[in-house]
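Translate sequence into structure tokens.
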Amino acid sequence: MANVSFIFASSPRRVENTFPNDFTVADLKMHLLKENWPADLVESEKVERLRFFCMGKELEDGLKLGNISRPDNNIGIPIHVHIVKGSSFSMESREDPKWCCSCSIL
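Result follows.
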């Protein structure tokens, strides 16, 4: 079992829980969205995806919790959560004659 502390950049609130070592990062993401999503953040239904970071590295979905390297195995795993919100921009909006795209290369 491993203690995990989810840290959100946009909220002072942390979510802490204990999970089996064979849980994958994808399992953690699903559990967080469905079971422990903080009410003061964007609604979980509006989240397109989550990105997890630990010790300065992005965690891949297939990585098992027991394989996350950290300096001290006796302390919990700090996971920084980056929320990717669903985009309101769609391909249909490009068909609108008022749509304009511009960029500048300096």
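Note: The CA atoms of residues 15 and 51 lie 16 Å apart.
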